[in-house]
Amino acid sequence: MQVLYARHHVKVFRFALRLVKNEQVAEDLIGEVFLDVWRQAGRFEGRAAVTTWLLAITRFKALSALRKRSDAELDDEAVAAIADNADDPEVAVQKKDTGAVLRRCMAGLSAEHREIIDLVYYHEKSVEEVAEIVGIPENTVKTRMFYARRKLAELLKAAGVERGWP
Amino acid sequence: MMATVKQTGDTPSDIEALLPWHAAGTLNARDARRVDEALANDPALARQYAVIRDELAEAIHLNENLGAPSTRAMRKLFAAIDAEPARRPRASFHPAARLAAFFASLSPRTLAYAASAAVLALVVQAGVIGTIVVKERGATYGTASQAAKQATGGAYALVRFAPEARAADIAAFLDRAQASIVDGPKAGMFRVRIGETALPRDELDRRIARMQDDAVISFAAAAE
Q1: Does A31 share its domain with A57?
Q2: Nearest CA of chain B to the CA of A53: how many Å?
Q3: Which of A38, A132, B87, B162 could form an S-S bond across to B218 if both were Cys, CB 3.0 to 4.6 Å?
């Protein structure tokens, strides 16, 4: 268990944090996730990668945690979580720091779009694995990723960044 | 071939939809080849791919800057695990399920000792069988362990597995290291073959260092 935790807890934490946008809640969540893994180890059938299994459990628990909290609380925390030391998009554009603008706009995507971007780009999950984690058909995974990217392009355009796509 | 990107932009073409996974390196070989061919022939698709690679880099940057959980989370988790009641095997008539439930009920340390004992039993058994065969056939044949010892040109290491390592962890480590146990345990150490032929010193040192970094291993050193 220590080996499993040491290998995966950071990525599981980051996935949870991007979903719930609260470090304390994300830490509590990873404890619950690994405790569930400990309890249900016999049910892991080995059909999927361990990380896919972990992320699927994390997602389920994060959504349950989100449902328990009020929208107002979430909105406040979302703003606080997005706010960091980076400049506002407009300021960043003036400084020609398009990377910072891109990251800021990614943080401004909907939870559904953030989730798929993270799973594909950061957690390196295949179409099939994303489908298993999110619980949607593979074709929906592809179109959701496309629309997430298009929404990102819209946010970037609104912030003054033109990338030539779409 | 300019038809890969649909002009409407409402829905992605088959190849266009795969670009993010191609950038992340998670496509299967067949799809990766299809995307590569399309990228070589479609400038608009190649431009979009460049945009996607920027997105990928920034998504990694964003996530890597999220930090890591505090040690409080780990302490809390392992305290909760320690407080868990001992797991009992679930009732099942299937022999495999019963066996799995039995192993699940063992602590990691018990499993590590059990794995060591099982390997020891195999080595002893191989020795006994080898002795019988040698006696009966006048030393025409040798045991597998003898053959391994006599094999020339191989690269070997001595390792001690961490007490909490489970049988599955050890098997996964052997897969990762492309190693096989050829002898042991002696004083808690196993002799593992890590190469069919002798390795250059720097390569051997690198492999040993990688083993020492593995959580399953508590000690590793080069061996003759």
Answers
A1: yes
A2: 17
A3: B162
Q: Percentage helix, strand, coil, to 5, in chain B?
A: 60, 10, 30
Question: Which amino acid makes up residue B122?
Answer: L
Q: Which of B6, B54, B55, B76 to mutate to test the interface with A (most CBs of A within 10 A)?
A: B55
A121–B56 C-beta distance less than 8 A: yes
Across the interface, whether the CB atoms of A42 and B104 are under 8 A apart is answered yes
Domain borders along chain B are 14-64, 107-223
How do residues B106-153 score in pLDDT, each as one tens digit? 555 555 666 666 666 677 677 777 666 666 555 444 444 444 444 456
pLDDT digits (tens, 9 = 90+) for B188-201: 778 888 888 888 88
Q: Is residue A123 a part of any domain in this protein? A: yes
The domain of A119 spans: 86-161
Residue range A70-82, pLDDT digits in tens: 554 555 555 444 4
CB contact under 8 A, B169 and A3: yes
B197: closest CA of chain A, how far (Å): 31
ipTM value for the complex? 0.82
Q: For chain A, how many structural domains are there in total? A: 2
Between A14, A27, A121, which is nearest B70 by CB?
A27
Q: Same structural domain for residues A30 and A67?
A: yes
Measured torsion, CA atoms of residues B105, B110, B113, B115, in degrees rounded to the nearest 10: 10
CATH number assigned to the domain comprising residue A42: 1.10.1740.10
Percent of all residues in chain A with a pLDDT value above 70, rounded to a whole number = 80
Clarify whether residues A59 and A32 are in a common domain: yes
In a domain, residue A74? The reply is: yes
Q: Token pair of A35, please?
A: 């405790």
